[in-house]
Amino acid sequence: xxxxxxxxxxxxxxxxKTGTKIFCPSSTEFGAAPNHHVCPVCLxxxxxxxxxxxxxxxxxxxxxxxxNCRIAPYSKFDRKNYYYPDLPKNYQISQYDLPIAANGYLxxxxxxxxxxxxxxxxxxxxxxxxxxxxxxxxxxxxxxVDYNRTGVPLIEIVSEPDMRTPEEAAAYLEKLKAIxxxxxxxxxxxxxxxxxxxxxxxxxxxxxxxxxxxxEIKNMNSFKALQRALQYEIxxxxxxxxxxxxxxxxxxxxxEDRGVTLSLRSKEEAHDYRYFPEPDLVPMVISxxxxxxIRSTLPELPDRRKQRFVRDYGLPAYDAxxxxxxxxxxxxFERCVxxxxxxxxxxxxxxxxxSRMMNATGTEIGDVCIRPEQLAGMLxxxxxxxxxGKIAKTVFEEMFRTGKDxxxxxxxxxxxxISDQAVIEKVVEEVIANNTKxxxxxxxxxxxxxxxxxxxxxxxxxxxxxxxxxxxxxxxxLGK
Amino acid sequence: xxLYHMTAHRLQQMLAKGEISAEELCRSxxxxxxxxxxxxxxxxxxxxxxxxQQAKAVDKARxxxxxxxxxxxxxxxxxxxxxxxxxxxxxxxKILYNYVxxxxxxxxxxxxxxxxxxxxxxxxxxxxxxxxxxxxxxxPTCNPWDTDRVPGGSSGGSAAAVAAGEAVLALxxxxxxxxxxxxxxxxxxxxxxxxxxxxxxxxxxxxSSLDQIGPFARDVTDCALMxxxxxGHDPRDSTSVPYDKPDYRTFLTGExxxxxxxxxxxxxxxxxxxxxxxxxxxxVRVFTDLGAEVEETSLPHxxxxxxxxxxxxxxxxSSNLARYDGVRYGYRADKSEDVVDMFKKTRSEGFGPEVxxxxxxxxxxxxxxxxxAYYNKALKVRTLIKRDFDRALExxxxxxxxxxxxxAFKRGEKVDDPLQMYMVDICTLAVNLAGIPAISVPAxxxxxxxxxxxxxxxxxxxGEILRAAYAFEQCSGICCQLPD
Lengths: 480, 484
What we know:
The structure holds 2 protein chains of 2 kinds. By secondary structure, chain A is of the alpha+beta class. Chain A contains 15 helices and 16 strands. By secondary structure, chain B is α/β, with parallel strands linked by helices. Chain B is built from 15 helices and 11 strands. Chain B is globular. The interface between A and B is large, with 29 and 44 residues.
């Protein structure tokens, strides 16, 4: 059987986090009552005209610069014509042949191998509204339209067909998301639709340079869906070729429940969008000064920050990559390290207990109620021996739930570690007296029995005894 | 002379002196409307109660000694493709037969600020597509000079209203001659300002890169007064140009000695009625007598204006009119199987034949594989035409030509031959493609029908155009000839 290689390119839509829409002053707030954030302009009423929101251009430039793109000094808007009830003008104002930016790239790493993925272009456009059906679209007796999202600013980022596996595609999307989030121009929340992704995919015999026939895959609403859909589609195309059949150029949709891609429309049925220059807007001339001004506001981006974490904090590359995956997490980590200068310890807590509890509760780093000061404070209590490592975990969980200071929790729950030798000695003696069997076992050489005895002491002290001290005293008392 | 037949600047003086009240004036105009509207059908919607209220408010303000803007209390008619808050705006189309805008066009805000009295909304060719007002989805408007004839289009209702005494002033829109042609046919003054001089916000778009709002008036002075109200930069229209707006009355001096005027030979040759040509030649002599230097010149790409226009305008229209789908407002067809069926039925039933023709033309011109051959080529031709004007206007202060090749034609005469109908605009289309300002002023009569003379100027050269038009009007005495 011939070896095949997949060729994948992604088209990613990102909602920009401006306060108002791209061509009118309506709010972009997510989740408002239907048709609450609308005005004559975004409703496309007869006679209205668009006016470009300067902030949108600024954000688009900022994102494009973060993606190493060249900003076009001259750029214009075009109309993309198609009929759909969620599109009030039945055309979308987009950019066709003169996008705001082009020729960028980003770096991904898959299985320890770095790879550069080209970015063809970045352009600005307006979002459409949302249809609400009664049940399924095919059986609904009527549909309602919510135009709140109409005119929310988007950038579309088109990659080169540089990816070869679903893992690379996912890594690209992860990195793209991280970079855009770092710039602060978008939340990039896939579940809220502020990050959306379509894929172009084809396969070819390994070693061949020409491209096979591609299909476009839509409706992938998570990173997992992206990988699954691509995996399925690549296998489907290989099967076709293996059976001597041909791949048909078409648009396909990912059916998440059935785990398959389904034909949506063929090339013949493809829309002719009849693009032409938007006569209601004047072309944009973007000065180098403005671009430089925006460039100067770019934050340190994930790759650079990761390198710095390895270099300055001596972290393993893996830790650095995880900690810099979002700007908020990296900021959180750095604030903790400022207050408690043991980077690896902080990293262990952030990547360990904190991540575990965030995942378990579905909490974002921005919503975590443990302040860096509190985490640092807890680590200091641990260092001073005020609490044991075991108690620290209990304290941490309490902090995560309540946002209280570690000192307060320790005091409230009486969790201060017992390091008073006399107190522990007394308990140790009691445990030895009450567990003769285990004592005998230990004395006859069964080292494991000591663990049981330590456990009994800890139990009697409600976990507060200093474990090191307990160990030491037990061994002394048992004369070994 | 009845109040409804007077010019705004004369009425303005009478109002200021307290000789008449705005309410009297308003009632006079409505009385005239009651007399002749049945024959003329200039209006789609009349707003009598609000008009009288506005007029009374002006009178009250004047009595209270308030300083009023120059045109306060002057009754004005507005073409029905300019959005009026709370007042039906139909574009003379079935598809918008019930549409009431929730907002005012920028020009409407300006008219309100000027405390003018809005009489109602005037008839037009559907979506401003046409040259005779016969494409109205409601009824045709008749020419006050001969009711068997068309008033010209597309702003035929506004022109007829001003000519018939059903309004003192009016607003229209001009995409390829839609102000100047009906002004010529109805014997009134009509001006298309420079593209970008008047805000298009709230003007229902036909062809966005060509549309421009402008005034109808009984003489050049009134036209200048109206420009003073409506011109100016508007941040809501990105194609509106920030510029220093002059007081256009300052150009009305009668003095044009040394002014250089070119007469493009392409506008005086084949296809132009000899009687019209004669009137234009007479006008040339008037200008020479006034001390202007008039000579023949050339705009070599003039022949291509019409084909370029009929690609660019329909292309933009095909997209601009896509929003009328029955989903949000206006007409919606009954009993549709699904949403696509609803789109099709709504648009099939809602649009008239000329609108459909232009949507199809434009859709075709923008289609994959044809774009370069049609739309793109037309844009290049547009550049050449613009360059013709740039060159000519380097040498001349103004260009002079007939507004139309003939006088108002009979209703029904050209409806079955779209090309014949399109030819009516051959003298006006190029001005829109070039974006320059132009005026049509009455220059004489042929067999009792008015003939218009067109003066074209440099971008934002409305003042110089008015200067020449005013001098001509004063010298020839042709203004204010209104039918009974």
